[in-house]
TrEMBL record:
Name of the protein in question: Tyrosinase
Source organism (scientific name): Nitrosomonas communis
Superkingdom, taxonomy of origin: Bacteria
InterPro entries noted in UniProt: Di-copper_centre_dom_sf (IPR008922)
Length: 183
């Protein structure tokens, strides 16, 4: 499946469930499983989850009181997870974005298991984990880091051209097809 097919499924899901948070999560369950099951991957870890988190925030999180927030470094340490560390200031090329994605995905895989053990949630099951707050707290944390490097990349490679980090992600998805599986 091409990355555009996953992107289009996510866009359709968001459009179809814009007023239905439960429907969004139920529909995301199959898409998330399919994304995890695809080998080789066509839609990179950070780009896929960035779009998922954006839709979650708009459709689900905006209706919650209180809203789900990203894990803090202290939260992570309390579950035995060392917060992700990297020099984000040096990420400003497509290759560096791809390396960052690979590095944070490896960290994330370990974090999923540790958080699942600490919270007793099925963090390792892509059909179920999207229904649990720890999944979203982890991915909000990761997406915050990704937004930082996306904006940085946009500012350095396309000075003053992009509206925000989602616009940079959209640019990557439509203009840099060969990089999408790696970012």
């Amino acid at each position: 499946m091409a990355h555009s097919q996953f992107r289009n499924r996510l866009i359709a899901l968001a459009n179809d469930t814009s007023e239905n948070p439960t429907g969004f999560l139920e529909g995301l369950s199959d898409i998330h499983f399919d994304w995890h099951d695809e080998l080789p991957p066509t839609y990179g870890f950070l780009l896929f989850h960035h779009r998922v988190v954006r839709y979650f925030n708009s459709i689900v999180n905006s209706r919650l009181q209180p809203q789900i927030s990203a894990f803090t470094p202290s939260d992570l340490q309390g579950m035995g997870v060392q917060p992700f560390t990297a020099n984000l200031g040096n990420i400003d090329t497509l290759g560096e974005l791809a390396n960052f994605s690979s590095s944070i995905q490896s960290w994330h895989n370990n974090a999923h298991g540790l958080i699942g053990s600490a919270t007793q949630t099925p963090m390792m099951d892509p059909r179920q984990n999207i229904f649990f707050q720890p999944f979203w707290r982890l991915h909000l944390y990761i997406d915050g880091l990704f937004q930082t490097v996306l904006q940085q990349y946009g500012d350095r490679q396309h000075s003053s051209q992009f509206i925000d980090s989602p616009a940079v992600a959209g640019h990557l998805e439509v203009s840099h097809h060969s990089w999408v599986p790696r970012i």
